Every structure is written in structure tokens, then in C-alpha cells.
Amino acid sequence: MSGILSLIIFLPLLGGLIILFIPKSADRVMKQIALVASIVSLLLSLVLAAQFSRGGGMQFEERYSWIPSIGVNYYLAVDGLSLPLIVLTAVLSVLSVIYSWRIDVRLKEYLFLFLLLETGMLGVFAALDFFLFYVFWEITLVPMYFLIGIWGGPRREYAAIKFFLFTLVGSLAMLLAILIMYFNAEPHTFSMLELIRQQPLADTPLLAALAFWGFFLSFAIKVPMWPFHTWLPDAHVEAPTAASVILAGVLLKMGTYGFLRISLPMLPETFKAYAFFIAVLALLGIVYGALVAMAQTDLKKLVAYSSVNHMGYVMLGTAAAAGAVGDPSKAAAAATALNGAVFEMIAHGVITGALFFVVGVIYDYRAHTRGVDEFGGLGAKLPVYTGITTIAMLASLGLPGLMGFVAEFLVFLGSFGVFPYLTAVAVTGVIFTAAMFLWTIQRIFLGAPNPRWATLPDMDAREKLTLVPLAVLMIVFGLFPKPLLDVINAAMTSLVTALR
Amino acid sequence: MGELAAFIILACVTLIPAVVVVTSGNIVRSALSLIPTFLGVTGLYILLHAEFVAGIQILIYAGAITVLILFVIMLTAGGTGTRIRQVNEQVPLGAMAAVWLGFLILLVIFRTRWPYTATPAPQYNVASIGTAFLTDYVLIFEVTSLVLLVSLIGAIIVARREE
Amino acid sequence: MLQYAWVIPVLPFIGFWWIIFAGRRAPGQGAYVAIGAMLGAALLSVAAFIEVLRGARYDASVVWATVLNRPIEVGYQVDPLTSVMLLVVTVVGSLIFIYSIGYMQGDLRYPRFFAYMSLFASSMLLLVLGNNFLTLYAGWELVGLCSYLLIGFWFERPAAARASMKAFVTTRVGDLFMFLGILLIFLQLGTLNFNEIFSGVETGRLAGGLLTLAAVLVFGGAVGKSAQVPLHVWLPDAMEGPTPVSALIHAATMVAAGVYLVARAYPLFFGTPGHEALTVVAYIGGITAIMAATIGVVQDDIKRVMAYSTISQLGYMMMGLGVLGFTAGVFHLMTHAFFKALLFLAAGSVIHAMHTNDIKQMGGLAKIMPITYVTMVIGALALAGIPPFAGFWSKDEILLEAYHYDQVLYALGAAGAFLTAFYIFRMIIYTFTGSLRSHPAHPHESPRVMTVPLVILAFFSTVIGLAGAPWWDNPFHHFVRFEGAEGAAFDFEFALRSTAIAGLGVLSALVVYHWRLVSAASLRRAFGPLYIAVVHKYYWDELYQYAVIRPVVWAARRLRTFDVYVVDGAVNAIGVVFVWFSRLYRVFDLYVVDGVVNLVAWTAKTMGGVLRYGQTGRPQNYLLIIALGVIALVVVGVIR
Amino acid sequence: MNPADLWSIVPELWLTGLAIFLLLVDLFTARKTVVGVVAVIGLLLSIIPTGVLLGQDPRTILAGTYAVDGFAVFFKILTVIATALVTLAAMDWLPGRTQYEGEFYALLVFTAVALILMAASTDIILLALSVEFVSLTSYVLAGYLKGNVKSNEAGVKYFLFGATASAVMLFGFSILYGLTGTTNLYEIARRVSDAPLQALSLSVALMLTGFGFKISMVPFHQWTPDVYEGAPTPVAAYLSVASKAAGFAALVRLLMVVVDPRQLNWVPLLAILAAVSMTLGNLLALPQRNIKRMLAYSSISHAGFLLIGVVAFRGDFGTPGLLIYLLGYTFTQLGAFFVAALIGRQLGTDDIPDYAGLSRRAPVSALLMAVFMLSLTGLPPTSVFVGKFYVLAGAIDNGLLWLAIVGVVNSIISLYYYAGVIRAMYIMPAPSTVPLEEPAALQVALGIAGLGTLIIGLYPQPIIDLARSAVLLLRI
Amino acid sequence: MHVGLTHYLVVSTILFCIGLYGVLTRRNAVAILMGIELMLNASNINLVAFNRYLAPGAVGGQTFALVIITLAACEAAVGLALVMAAYRSLETIHVDEINVMKW
Asked: Is residue C437 over pLDDT 80?
């Protein structure tokens, strides 16, 4: 099975390169190639999941020397943390390609960038060498910049450059932090696992703090944590639907993934020292995100701010786990919080991905407006659309039986054991979220039918094809989270054990 | 004592026309003032027993370069009027910069204990320089010739009138 | 066969998906599917009930998730309390489902209605069956969702849409407290399983103030769900939903879930020092009971009368549980489910005939709708607490327990009982006696599919109370009991007193509204300020309005941009607060957080612009800078 | 003189011969493209004798005036590549703009010789001579378009600045000579250890002016935008790459060999100059609309980055980083200038807003330009990223974290204007959709630049090996 | 008093600064070139003086001076050619008027 990870990662890129050489007129062929590339990548990732042995630590390792003179390796492997994210990425990419079928402006570039983006994202989650990780991390920036900048809405230029600048600030801060880690390790190494084992900065608190804040800046911008979130609404609103989906569904996860893969295991003591502060930021994100979302009249902005809210849960769980570092009595709470955080990452990917598709369905091809107040009474005209939207929104507000609940429940359960008061306040976010989504549903779907939308058609087959799988995932993992949680738990258990 | 007198005279011959070069309102006068300066420097070389350098100095500087400069001044009609302002608006600043830099360099020169080797004045001759050029400094010699060639080509290309 | 009890909620769940996907193609456009599933569940419930009666118990868990190496389990249990609840939910549910065939006939979203109802039944059964807080919470939220969907079933009506959201958000406020309580319990005991929690309480691993806090927090959920003061405001508005929904969800079952929760977690409350958590429960219940009853007296909307009555009766149940009358509270829950469902369905029948909810426009319906009339009177008698109807036995027991526990609570309860009898007969008299006051209406008796459930429910309302009657050794007491809160024995004299109070209430209603010996207007005058307070429902809505909306509206006038949202957003008090805050946050977001970033970009650009004036293009300026640079370098070199 | 020494300077001899041969060819052919082709072939052939030198032990030849070491070889290769690419680009850019096309190629090759000499000189006379040699040919090249006002101006300005800077530098050399009494660098290095500190500082400061001018370091940077804008685009490209690289080579050799930082600590001074160069260059590049000026300012900023590599000389990262950066930057910057040349040729404009819609009109060039811009920003997997990575690593390795942070901040600022070019090409609406003709030679040069940028980014190991051996061999 | 190294250095420094002043203040490109020539002469005096006093056994300084003289000639040639070319199209040799490009 060796090589399968590389195959998963680079198949999309290969598809993209092939597309570059296809004549402009053959747009159907280009789409098919993109679809095939992403689907094969998805299938392989499912094979990966099937072959994955729980509790087996890092698996499917691939390790080749890349730049031997500074110890850079091409080093890929997956564990219970990265595997679900890889599958999620593959799933969302396939759905996005399907959704993008109707793109006709500069199709070739679109598909190429999209597939390049997929490669970058998959690579981030599989890379275990810092250099490689950084390279993939940066690769994701560029296509997203173009996707927003070219196919985005009216303020796309502003949004695109804002996205680029914000995230570049973060990634360069990370580069410095990586270098600090590198030079303090003996022997110098970029291998994440080796750095985790060595804990090179354990004895130099100042450097450790510097490195930590370097990583923090990078990941917090990506997540995004309050107050680094302001790029998000702009980017989301202006991005084309599929890019929004990927942005919310996968790119944000890169930040939290970084916290879990890097900050927590590599700098546990430092993280612990700032855990409370970070938890407060997470809390602000939760409450603030929900409140601001409620004030939005733009549906996409609303969903964007709800992402701020949800990623706050992830960060709360992560910070709680950090706060429990070195305290064996809190290990269980930490593990619970971590499981919740990772599950929330997946859940948010699925749910918010679906929500952005939902927004796209109404905006791109039907109403051409996202003003929440401009709708009303759509429930009677578009029953299927209403149903799926409602499921997604309910999942997002944490209704039991759907994916979001499992995640929030575990996060709260775990973090309450570490930061009880903060968590108690954070729980109020659930109400805000509920009020926000219900009010949205009310304004869009309930009430008297608005005659302006009397002729809107319901979802067509392709749109159903993109959304129904996500809805099914929400329900299945909402009811039976165990298969997924077992995979995650294996990784989180070893993480917590290491931190104890 | 005579050496000192000679030095002072030569220094004055060098420096005073130099001041004229950079201050004169008449560009032609400036150019002509270059000649005594170069000659003064030549005298200093002789005082330093560097006769070959002195000779070259006269040939190239006083001869070639000054003539070239005068030519260009004539060609560009720079010598026609003295009414044209010859200095720009940053005279005070430029003077200050020059004085400050001079002060600093002099400061360093005076503060430094130069590694004197109190030897009698050596007798340099053209032969030793020639030998150096063909042994130790052969590459320099060859490159210098290359530079001359390339400068020639370059100057011709640039100066020739475009048809 | 108790190990198959999990099938009970699954049946309606399957029904839900079937109807959702099949729509009108499902048998009976979905109705038969739902009813079939429900009847199946009812049969199973009966079977389970019989098993439990024979002494069988069941408790099983499966691992839902493993965290570290600690499993989080979910599972179900069947014990007397559960089996009673199962029975109530499935039997009442089946009848209401059948009734709905008639009531919802011709509705635009007829299949959807049955789908939602099935989902509700499934969730409610899940809630009841759960042996742990996780399952309970899941069911709890899901019934809330169904309530939301069903209140807003006719969502084209703005009032319905608003009410649904108000209901969901208000109850979720309660759920928040409950969730915190659950977190607290989990933090202390590391488990969510009821039995393990209770044993933890017994062994004192969770005790003292922390236990009280946990119990009160959990009770917060019950306050929201069971519409207790101060979170009761959502229930009257919830009457915007179709009447069968009101009957099933907002009278018989879901709202009783709060009571069920307290009963289920009784050891938690009981174990608090000096039963202080129970005292809280009792007083909240008592206040709710009397307050809602008084409001019920002045309501003219038939369903609102019923709604306030429900709130009031839920208060009684809470009070019963609070005054150590565990059995009494649960008993009242059961009887109430039957007679209140009956009352609602009968009211639905009336509404179906009249197409209005206003009792002042009705009158003389007794002759036109005899079955409805008779069954409704039976329901009213049961509610009023006239023996031998069901309500008498349970209510009397609660009053008895209260009498022994706290005289103040008893006084509240007794007054409430009088008022209950009064307002329900006021409604009966307005509706059925005299002559029709709305002329355009053409009332008619409802179809068989609606009346048969009425009759069955009337039957239950008559006899079910006997399960708790002192004869045959009070079987209910032996069945559903809690060690330490056994309650007092039946007191014949006291029962007489209760009957008298109820009878007095009925009589007063007759005097005022039927025989008109005393005019209602003079009563209004007599009660003056109290009447005004009651008419305005004690200003609860106004309180939320004035405390929050007014200042917001004022601010909104100042900030005109916000105007639209506040007016539009005056859906309910909480919503408005949120909107107001979030607008502020948004401004903060736009101008402060974002502003910093833009400022940095702006500064960089401006600096670039300023700096380029240094770039004059004039060579000697540059040369001068070179010279100055040399000087600087030399200075740095020399002055070191 | 050892005859074997001649074998060691075969590349230089070959190139000199080539340049003279080109002049001859030019006399006998009317098709000037032939001259260009011959030049490119000759340049590429010179790689062979250069490669032979690669494995040889480091030594000085010709009485210690000339180094044959990895460092010199590295810059030979760099120079030859840059010259060949520029020649290719010029073949499509020049025709119709000057009558002296053949001489242009000859001058380019002469400049290459001068640059190679500059990087390998171990004698201050030869160093001064080669610096001047470079300058002289550069002045001519910058002012090559005689009918063009901007080119004239660029030539004059470049000459004035260059001559002044080298006069100052020569004064510094004279003092260095005075302190040691010898002109050989290694001899100087031995004798300078007990030289008076102040005088040494003075001479270093004065010499720094000359090199600072060559590498366009602040405060000797201001000629850069005017000259780049005015000079023929291939020349600007060449100046920004090869001339800068040779300047760094000479600077590093001088500082490394002669000035022991334990004696005269030049590290803080250069670190500050690096920071200022980066920042000032960037801030000035922000408001630019002319692509060549923008690239000029950004090259000042890159000079600052490269100075980090000079400053962070301890350890395995700084100096190799400098070399890697230079090589990577060579490809990228040349590529960017070539695109500018292409557009300047086809659209007659250097304004960035006029690049609107380029992605439709010249997709390959636009794509490559985007790659170059991202590379200049320092995004992986591109060559400049590897360079930046190395110099930043060097800074951290040397305890200069603050400098690394300044570098990072400047990378972010730089994104803003580099992305502006991408924005114009890809996002702004095209005023016309007529495809642009993309001439062959320029296209080849562009492709090589793009490939170089990406290959170094993806697989930098060979370059790293080369750079490390070059640095190891520097201190003979 | 004996004429020593310092004397020559003082003269050369002053000459250098005079040249620099000229470079900084003259508008005429040719005049600037003259200033540069003065500066180069200053270097040459230095080199020859150093050679005489510090390393009398070798001819490095003188060689250097000779090279610089050659270079000065080359510079003059190329520089004046450029000035000529500029004069043809711009019709001025005043450098503050040779100023098409700025910023």
C-alpha cells in the first residue's frame, strides 16, 4: 500500500496538469477529467480508511530524502487525526467539482486551480515534515486567491488580497517558528514526530513562547480565531460557492489541525501557560460569532460568522486539552475535549460545506440575491431545498441526532472539566446559534410566500447529488459517531498520553 | 627643508586650481584649471619618486582627459555662456558634506599610527613596474587592455550619431 | 420481551422516513403509516406495561463513543415510570393521530404533518426510554424540534412562524441550564447513566451545595419545557399550531416531559440537603399553578384557556413532586394527559366546526355537537376535579401532600383548584349553552374519525383515575413509588373538602355565566386592579417588552440604520436583545477590528507615498544622499 | 607564471574570445540574430570548461591575483546563465530599436567576463579594475538606445552615480592598501589583523559605498529605479541580476577574507542596512505603477534580504543561502523582466494597469509571470522561497531573530504589490482579447527562467550542494 | 620639518573633498566628471604615497595608480560619450534637467 498517500495527494494535480493541455473548446472533457481525478482520489482515500488500523499510530508512511543537506524529507503518513480530514477533503472536493459543473467562465483555469488546491490541502494533512508541510500550506493560498479573485463577487479583489495577506502573515510567522524549532533540535530536524519526541524548547521558555506565538498567529488566522477573523466574512462572501465550501470546509481546519498536530504536542507547557487566554479568545469567537451572524442580512455572511462560532468550539476544546497538560486527573476531560474538537472539525466541514452549497443553490442559479430579508415563504415552493437547508442548519445549531451535536457535546463535556466557568458561558452560544438559524429559517422559508419567487424551481438532480450525501453524513454520524470517533480517539488517546 | 617647500608649493598648485575647478562660474575656466591641478599632482608623484606614474599622469590626465573634456564642453555649447547657473541649490549641504567627510578622514588619518618603514627613498624605475606588469600583475595588465578596448567600443557606439 | 423495548421508538421513526420519502404516495397519504406505527408502538407499550406490572425490569446500554478508554454509553431502561409514560404517549398519541385524519383533511402538507408527528412520537419515546442523560437530552431536543416544526406548521401565518421560534428559543434557554447541570454531574461523577448518578448521590460523591446546584440547573430544563414561570410565555403562543399538535405536544406529552425529568431525576432532587431543590420545584410549581389559573379565567380564545390550564396543571404536577408527592405528581401527569388531550381534541372539534377560536362567538353548540359536548364536559369535570373523574384522584392527592408539607403551597393549590373549575366551566357554558352568537357560521358535528377518539379518551378520563383510588389498595401507588416520598394515605375528609372546592368553582361559573345571577362586569369591577393584571397576563410579555424592547427601539430611532431590524426583529424579547447586541458587535467588527488591519495597510501605502518624495529623480540629490551615507558609515566606523 | 594557470582561466579566455569573435561576426553578417545565436551557443559552451573546474582544489593562480575556487565557479555559472538568458531575450527585444545590435551581444559577453573576474579577484587592483570594467560596460548598455530619452537619462545617471561611487570606493581601497602595504587579498588578510581599527573602519566604509552601489543597498540605492526604467529592458534585467550578484560576490569575498568580525564587527551595521533596505525598497515599491520601477524597488528590497545572508555568515545557512537566493533570484527576476520586455515590445507600455487581461491574451506568459511574482514574494515551491528560507534560517541560526522578523514582515508587504501584477493580469477585465504574439527566443528565455524557478523550488538539493561547496572553498 | 606620509594624505583628503563638493554641487555633467577626476587623483596620491612610505620594496601602489589613471581615461571617454548622446536628444547637459523619470 505504500505510495497510496502520494497517489491520493497528487492525482488531482495530475488531473489539473492534463486539463491545462486540453483545448479550450473541450470544456466537457475538462470537467470529466477533473471529476475523475477527484473521484479516484476520494476512492483511494476510502481505501485508505478501510485499511487503516485503529490505534496503529502513524500509518502508510512514505519517506524519501528530499533535501538531505538540511534534513528535509518527503515524509507522509496518516493517523486518526489526519485520516478523517483527508477523507473530508476528498469528499468536499468531489462535491465541489460536481457543483461547479455549470461554471463556464475561464473553466480551464478554474479546474486547474481547484485541483491544485485539493492537492495542497491533502498534502497539509498528510505531511509530517515541517518543510513539506509548509510548502503544502502555502500551495493552498495561491489557488484560493485566484478562485476568489477571478470568480468571486463584486468586491472580490479586496476580499482576495485580504485573504492572501492575512494568511501570508500567519504562514510566515509559522516559518519563523519552524526555524526556531529546527535550530534548537539536536540534531537539527524538520521531522514533526522527531520534534515532538525531542521537545527541543522545553528548557528555553522564552524561545518556546516565541515559537508558540509564531505558530499561534499562523493557525489562529487560519482558524480564524477572534480577533483575526475579519478576513473570513469578506473572503466567504465574495468567493464562488465551491471555493466557499472548500474554504470553510477544509481550509479553516488547517488552522485547528495545526494546533493539534503542532502546537499542542510540540510546545505543551507553553500552550498550557496560555491555554486560558486562548480559551477566552475561543469563547469570544463563539459568542461574538453567533451574535454577529444574527445581525447579518447576507446569507453567506451569516454562514461565515457561524463558522467563527463553530471554530470557537474547536478552539475551546483544544485550549481545554492544553490547560489539562501535565495533570493526569484531567486526562479524561482533555481527551474528551480533543475528541470533540476533532469531531467538530469534521462536522463543521460537512455542515458548513452543505450550508454554503445551499446558499449557492439559491444565489448562483436562482434568486441571485442573498438578502435574507428578501425571501420569505420559500418553504412552500421549494420543499426539498427547504428540507435540506433545515437539516443543515439544525445540524449546525447542534440538534441531537445530527453531527454538530456530537461534537459540541463532547467539547463541552471535556472542557467543562478544565474551564468550567468559561464553558458555562460558552454554552450560551448554543442559544444564540439556535436563535440565529431559526430566525434565518423563519425569514427565508416561513411566512407568506413572496410572489417575487413564485417561479423558482426546486433543486435539480446535480444539486441534490451534491447536497444529499452531506445530509446523509450529518445524520449517520450524528446517530452513530462511534466509527469515526474510534478513529479519532485512537490518535487523541496517544496524544493525551504523551502529554501526561 | 627644500623638500617641504617644494611640497607646499606643489600642494598649493594642486589644491587652489582644484577649488577653482569646482567653484568657477565659467565651465571653460574650470576645465582649464584642471591642468595645473594635474600638474601639481604630477609634481607630488615626482616628489614621491614615482617618475613613471608622473609621466603617465601628464600624458593621460593633463593631455588626454583635459582635452577630451574641453572638446565636449565645446561640442555641447557649454562654454558659450557664463550666465547659466553652474551650481545647484544644494551648495550649502554639499559643502557641509564635503567638509564633514574631510574632517572625519583627516581625523582618522591623524589618529592612525601608520606602519612606517623608515627606509631611504627607493629608486623605482620603469623596468620594475614593467616587470611587475608582466609577472605578478599580468592578469591585471591584460584586463586593463581589455577594458581599454571595450571602453573604446562602448564610447564609439554611444557617441556615434544615430543614422 | 423488555429487551425489545427499543423497537417502540423505532417504529414511528421508520414511519417518519417513510412518509418523508413517499409523501402522498404513502398509504393514506402517510396517515396510515403513522397510525400503524403508533398503534404498533402502543401494543408493544401495553405488552411492556404488563411485563413491568409482573415485576420485570430492564436496563441495557451500548457504547456510543469511547473517549480515552472511557466509554460513553447510551441505553434504555424500562421501569414503572417509563412504562407508564410509554403507555400514555402511545395510547394518547394513537388516538390523536386517528383524530388528525379528520382534522387535517385537505391540508396542503397533510403527509408532512404525519411525518412530523411520527418524528415527535419517536423522539418522545426515546426521551422516555433513555437510561441516561445523553439519550434524554437528545430526545428532549428532538421533541423541541418537532414542537418547533409543528407550531410553525402553518408557517405562512406570520404569527405561527413567530410562535414557533419563540417556543424553541425560550425552551432552549431552559435547556441550557439543564445542559450545564448535566455537565456538572458528569464532571463530578464521570457518568451520564441515571443509576450510576443516583448511586453517586447516595454515596455522597455528589452532595451538598453542588448537588443542589446540579439539581436546580437540571430543573431549569424542566422549567422551560414544562412552561413554568418565568419561561412559560411560549406555551400560549404555541397554540398557533394545529389543534392535534396542541393536544399531543403542548398538553399531553411534551410539556409533561419536564415533570417526567424531575421524576426521573428524583433522587438528585431528593438527595439535596433538606430537600431544598424540591422546595424550589414546589414553589415554582405552586406559583405557576395559581398564576396560570387566574389568567385562564379571562381568556376568550378556547385554545388559550386550555393552554393556561395546561400551564396551571403542570404547575400542580411540579408542586406535587416538590412536596414529596412523587406518586401524586406522576399520577397527575398521567390523568392530565388523558383529560387534557380530550379537552383539546374536543376544542379542536369545536374549532373545526366554527372556524374560530373565540368562545364569545360560539354558544348553543350542545345541541348541534352532542358527542363533542358530552365528552368535553367529561373532560371538564376531570379537570375540575369532580369525583370520580380522573382529575379528582390525582389532584386531591397533590393537595393532600401539599397540605402535609407546606400550608402556603396548599393554599395556592386550593385556590387554583377553585379557579380551575371556574374557568373550565366558564368556557363550557360560553361554548355550548345559550345560542349561537356568530351568525355566518354553520356548525356541524365532526366526522366519526374525530368523535371516536373523543369517546375513547372520555372513557379513559373517567376511569383512569381509579388506578389511584384508595380501593383495591391503591395500585398506582404500589406501582410508581419512590422510597422516602411515599406520601400520605387517602383521607376521605380531605377528599370531600377538595370536591367541595371544585364544586364551588363549577357552581360559581354557573352562577355567573349560566344563570347570570351575578354579572361578569360587576365581578370585573369588584376585582379591579387584579382583573387588569390578569387580563394582561401579569405583564410578563410586557415585562420582556419594556425591559428590553423600548430602550432598543429608542436607540434604533437614533440609529436609523438599525430600524428595520429592530422592528422586524421584535419577534420576541430575547430575539431583540440579541439583534441589538449583535448589531453593536457588527459595528465593532466593521470599524474596530477590521479598522486596525486596514489602518496598517493604509499606513504602509501612505508611507510608501511619502517616501517616494525622497525619490526626486535628480541625480545630485541622490549623490548627496550617497555622500551622507558615506559620512554616516564612516561615523559609525570611527566613533565606535 | 605557471602555464597550467592558463588552463584554469579557459572560461574567461573563451568568453573574451567569444566577445571579440562576435564583433567580427557582426561585421560580416546583416542578420544580427545570427550574432545573438552565436553568443548564446558560445556562452553555453563555456559551461563545459567551467564545469571542469568544479571539482578542483581551491587555489589562487597568476601570482595570487585570481581565485579558482567553488565560489568563483558558482558565479561563473550564474553569470553565464544570466547572460545567455538575457541574450535570448534581447534577440527579440532589440531589433528595430538600435543599429548596433551585434555590438550589444558582444558588450553583454564582455560584461560577463568582467563579472566573472569581479567574483574571482583576489587582488584589490584586479577587483577595482573588474568593478570598473563592469561599470563601464553597464553604462554603455544602459544608455544604449540613443534615440530614447529615458535610455539616455539612464545612461548618464548611471554613469554619474557609478563613477562617484567607484571614486569613493577607490579611495577606500587606497587606504586599505596603506594599512597593509600589499594588494593581495590573502596577504592583506594576514596583515590586517594588527591594523589600526579606525582606519580599517574608514576604508571598509568607503569600500562599502562602491559595493553598496553595485548591489543597490540603501542608502546607495537611488539610481536603481531610474536606471532600470530607462535602460533597455534586457539590460535592466541583467543589471538587476548579474551585476548585483557579482557585487555580492565581491563584497562577500572581501568581508569574509579580509575583515574578521572579531576585529571589526560589521555585522550589526550590515544587519541594520539590510533591514532598512528591505523596508525602504518595499515601501517605495508599493505605489509604483511602472513594472520596471516596481521591480527596481523590489530589487532593493531583495538586496536587503540578500544582505541577511551576508550578515548571517556563521553556520551552514547564511552564506550558502545568499548564493542560493542569488541563483533563484536570477531566474525569477530575469523571468519577470522578460515578461515586462515582452509586454513592452508588444503593447508598448510598462504600466502595470495595462497588463489587464493578459491571462487571456498571452496565457503562458501570464502564468509564468504569476509564478515569478509569487516566487519573488517567497511562496513555495519556487526558487526565491528556498533562498528566503535559507537566509531566514541563517538569521535565526545567528541569533538575529529580529532581522528575520523584519524580513518576514517585508515579505508580507511585498505580496501587496506583487499580487497587484497578478491582479492586473488575471482579475482586471481585458480591454481587448486579441492574442499577443509571443516571440520565440523570448519565449525560450521565459520558459527557462520559469523552469529554473520551479525546479530550484521543487528540488533544491543540487543547488544547495553547489552553494555549500562554493562557500566551503571560499576560505582557501 | 620633514615631509611625511601624513602630509600627502592631508593633501589627498582635501583634494578628494574638493572633488566631492564639485560632484555634489555642479549642474553641468562635465563639471561633475571633473570632480570625479579630482577624487580619483586623490586616491592616486594616496596609493603612491603609501607605496613610497609603507611598502617601498614593491610597486603595488604605483601599479594601482597606473590602473586607476587608465580607468579614469576610460571613464572620461565613456562618460563624455554618454553626455554627448544625452545632449543630442535632451539638448542639455545640466543633470537636474535630465530628469524625465522620478519616483
From this structure: no
Residue A65 C-alpha cell reads as: 530524502
Phi/psi for A67 (5° steps) reads: -125, 80
The closest of E50, E37, E2 to B50, measured between CA atoms, is E50
Q: Quick one: what percent of chain C has pLDDT higher than 70? A: 86
D295 and D171: one domain? Answer: no
Domain membership of residue A239 (yes or no) is no
Q: Do D and C touch (≥3 CB pairs < 8 Å)?
A: yes
C20 interaction partners in chain A (CB closer than 8 Å): 387
**Residue D162 structural domain:** 1-265
Asked if the C-beta of C631 comes within 8 angstroms of chain E's C-beta atoms, the answer is no
Domain count, chain D: 2
Contact of chains E and A by CB distance (3 or more pairs under 8 angstroms): no
Report pLDDT for B83: 58
Cα(C455)–Cα(C525) distance, integer angstroms: 40
Residue D178 forms contact with E (CB below 8 Å): yes
Please tell me if residue C519 touches chain E, with a CB cutoff of 8 Å.
no
Does E100 lie at the interface with D, CB-CB under 8 angstroms?
yes
Complex ipTM > 0.90:
no
Residue D228 and residue D291 share a domain: no
Q: What is the helix (H) or strand (E) element at residue A192, kind and residue range?
A: helix A192-198
Which chain C residues are within 8 Å of E24, Cβ to Cβ?
620, 623-624, 627
Is residue D182 domain-shared with residue D69, that is, in the same domain? yes
- Last residue of some domain: D250, D265, D280? D265
Taking contacts as CB-CB distances below 8 angstroms, the residues of chain E near C624 are 24
The structural domains of chain B, ordered by start, are 2-84+121-159 (1.20.120.1200)
Does B28 contact E at CB distance below 8 Å?
no
* Interval A203-216 mean pLDDT: 91
What percentage of chain D's residues is helix, strand, coil (to nearest 5)?
A: 80, 0, 20
Is chain B adjacent to chain A, meaning 3+ CB pairs within 8 angstroms?
Answer: no
Mean per-residue pLDDT, C126-138: 90
Q: Which residues of D touch A183 (CB under 8 A)?
A: 393, 396-397
Interface probe with E: pick from C620, C625, C630, most Cβ of E within 10 Å: C620
CB atoms within 10 A of CB D439: 19
A124: in domain: no
Of C614, C622, C637, the CB nearest to D202: C637
Residue A138 lies in a domain: no
pLDDT digits (tens, 9 = 90+) for B107-162: 888 888 877 665 666 666 788 888 888 888 888 999 999 999 999 999 988 888 76
Residue A55 has pLDDT above 80, yes or no: no
Please, which pLDDT band fits residue C580 given cuts at 50, 70 and 90? very low
Same domain for D246 and D274, yes or no, is no
Please tell me whether residues D321 and D410 are part of one structural domain: yes
pLDDT greater than 80 at residue B66: yes
Mean pLDDT confidence for E78-85: 90
C628, B97: Cβ pair inside 8 Å? yes
Domains of chain E: 5-90 (1.10.287.3510)
- 3-state class (DSSP) for residue C5: coil
* Burial readout C141-160 (b: 16 or more C-beta within 10 A, e: otherwise): bbbbbbbbbbbbbbbbeeeb
Q: Is residue C561 predicted with pLDDT exceeding 50? A: no
Q: Tell me how far apart the alpha carbons of residues D18 and D107 are, in angstroms, rounded to a whole number.
A: 11
B81 and E CB contact within 8 Å = no
Q: What is the pLDDT of residues C140-189, one digit of tens each?
A: 988 988 888 888 888 888 888 888 888 887 888 888 899 999 989 888 88
Average confidence (pLDDT) over D345-350: 85
Q: Of the candidates D126, D140, D195, which has its C-beta nearest B154's C-beta?
A: D140
Residue E21, helix vs strand vs coil:
helix
Residues in chain E with CB shorter than 8 Å from the CB of B147 are 70-71, 74
**Residue finishing a domain among D218, D239, D265:** D265
- Percent of chain C scored above 90 by pLDDT? 9
Residue D216 shares a structural domain with residue D292: no
**Mean pLDDT of the C557-568 span:** 32
Q: How many CA atoms lie within 13 A of C580 on its CB side?
A: 22
Q: What is the residue-averaged pLDDT of chain D?
A: 89
Is residue A349 domain-resident?
yes
Q: Is A154 helix (H, G, I), strand (E, B) or coil?
A: coil
